[in-house]
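Technical annex, item 7. During the second reporting period the consortium partners agreed on a shared format for inverse folding records so that results from different sites could be compared directly. Each record opens with the tokenized structure and is followed by the designed sequence. A conforming record, contributed by the partner at site C, is shown below for reference.
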């Protein structure tokens, strides 16, 4: 659960824990994550792991991979975002770099690492057939397109 320290991220983590799922919480502020983790563990008796990580960092994918290497991930939710306040033309370049790093670069870098999870295991059979046909027709271009379309990576929960 990326962006789990507050707001929707914490609420998503709460809902997963209510359903008995162990959760990995990911955010910049470790102290806040530990508070959320303590509450989730106490209220729902699930395992909770905290990973303190700035999603704008250059090594986000490698750091996260090391932190969860020993567990199987069932659902991955990237709920983090950098949303600056103010006029676009008034923003410093470093703020814009953070926006791109967290909102674009982070999910794209995590994509190849999580590829088997959200492209193979969670696609329905019909979608797998469509994917195979498109991959045969368009080759590497299809892979680039598919990696950039968020709605294709959201699992269906029944």
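Designed sequence (site C submission):
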């Amino acid at each position: 659960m990326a962006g789990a320290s507050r707001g929707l991220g914490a609420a998503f983590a709460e809902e997963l824990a209510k359903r008995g799922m162990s959760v990995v919480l990911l955010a910049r502020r470790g102290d806040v994550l530990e508070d959320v983790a303590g509450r989730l563990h106490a209220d729902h008796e699930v395992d909770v792991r905290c990973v303190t990580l700035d999603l704008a960092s250059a090594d986000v994918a490698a750091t996260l991979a090391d932190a969860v290497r020993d567990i199987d991930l069932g659902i991955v939710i990237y709920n983090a975002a950098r949303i600056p306040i103010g006029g676009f033309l008034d923003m410093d370049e470093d703020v814009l770099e953070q926006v791109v790093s967290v909102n674009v670069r982070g999910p794209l870098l995590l994509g190849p690492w999580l590829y088997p999870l959200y492209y193979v295991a969670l696609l329905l059979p019909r979608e797998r057939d469509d994917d195979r046909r498109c991959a045969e027709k368009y080759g590497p271009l299809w892979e680039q397109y598919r990696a950039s379309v968020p709605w294709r990576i959201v699992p269906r929960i029944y």
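Residues 122-158 form one domain. Confidence is low (pLDDT under 50) at residues 117-126, 150-158. All partners now use this format for quarterly exchanges.
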